[in-house]
Amino acid sequence: MGGPGLAESPPMLRRVTLLLCLVPGIALGQATLAGTVTAIVATQGTSGHANRAECGSIASTSTWNISGTGVTIAIGDRWRLATLIQGGNTGCSATPPAGVQDVVATGATQSIPLVPVQTMGTAAPVGSCTQASDVPVWLCAYYLPLGSTTGAQVVQGTFTFQLAIPPAPVISRVTPGDTQLAVGVAPGTASATETATTGVTYTVTCTPPASSGLPTRTSSAGNAGTLICSGLTNSIPYTVTAQGFSQANNPGAVSGASQPVTPLPFLNFWQVYKDQGGVEQGGCSTGGAGGLAPALALLGLLAVRRRRS
User: Fold this and answer.
1) What tens digit of pLDDT does each residue of 238-260 get?
2) DSSP of the chain, one letter per residue?
3) Most exposed among 176, 189, 260, 273, judged by the fewest C-beta atoms under 10 Å?
4) Interatomic CA distance for residues 51 and 71, integer angstroms
């Protein structure tokens, strides 16, 4: 006959149940809790992945966010954080592994900061942080009553060690402008060691002659297409290279360099017309040749281009 103190004290009841589970033949198995667990690497800012540098760094950390239901936290309970390579398995293992680390459980919903990314990869195990392909892993947060693995329950989620790098892009054209170059960039062809092709962004770098003493300029990151390298000095030749970055910011190989291209001062329509052989003097009068100057300039320019084509 159970005393009223046991019936009125859920934590006490749970401890008695745990002790009974330790008796051979009636141990409880691990069960999956409803809920989710995610991990955000501090230097990424978005949930779900780490890059090569973070995978191999002892300084990179992540925050695990656990949201489980169906547990009542008591003093002495813990969460065990673990990782497991995805593959033939359909989720976290039934028996809690050694894990990444154990922390005191403060609630069914809990945020756990400063979890080392390198340890997450080692525990999975991911293997080399410079391999050619991405490595998806399970995130496993085991709820351990009284810190014991007996009767453990688990909340699981997914994470990717995004290790693939993009192939070197191709520069299709470089068009000069006033203090800038417009650079056409096309994706490169994937290879056995350069496999990232989705979510890739690009930058272009414009390098002046070393003797000029001018700085190198790099464009903002953007999709394949036309990227602008600005802040250049007119009449100075620049060589141009391009580079791709994976979704998790793994840098890929750099493209081959273009032939030197020189930014030029902007020429207005009238100057272009004169440079093409136009003879109309123009002007601002409302009649005569001056009034017809813009139209004549346009016709003259078209005629010159037609003769040269």
Assistant:
1) 999 999 999 999 999 999 999 99
2) ---HHHHT-HHHHHHHHHHHHTSTT-PPPPEEPEEEEEEEETTT-SBTEE-HHHHT-SS-EEEEEEEEES----TT-EEEEEEEE-SSS-SS-SS--S-SEEEE---SEEEEEEEEHHHHHHHTT---TT-SS-EEEEEEEEEEGGG-STT-EEEEEEEEE----PPP-EEEEEEEETTEEEEEEE-----SS----SS-EEEEEEE--GGG-PPPEEPPPB-SEEEEEESPPTT--BEEEEEEE-TT--EEEEPPPPPPB-------HHHHHHHTT------S-SSHHHHHHHHHHHHHHHHHHHHH-
3) 189
4) 34
pLDDT, tens digit (0-9, with 9 covering 90-100), for 35-86:
899 999 999 878 899 999 999 999 999 999 999 877 788 899 999 999 999 9
Domain boundaries of the chain, sorted by first residue? 21-161, 170-254, 269-308
Class of domain 170-254: mainly beta
- Can you say whether the dihedral through the CA atoms of 102, 105, 109, 112 is positive or negative? negative
How far is Cα of residue 225 from the mean position of the Cα atoms in its chain? 20
DSSP code string of 74-137:
-TT-EEEEEEEE-SSS-SS-SS--S-SEEEE---SEEEEEEEEHHHHHHHTT---TT-SS-EEE
The structure tokens listed for 277 are: 């052989």
**93 CB-side CA count, 13 A:** 13
> Rounded to two decimals, what is the model's pTM?
0.71
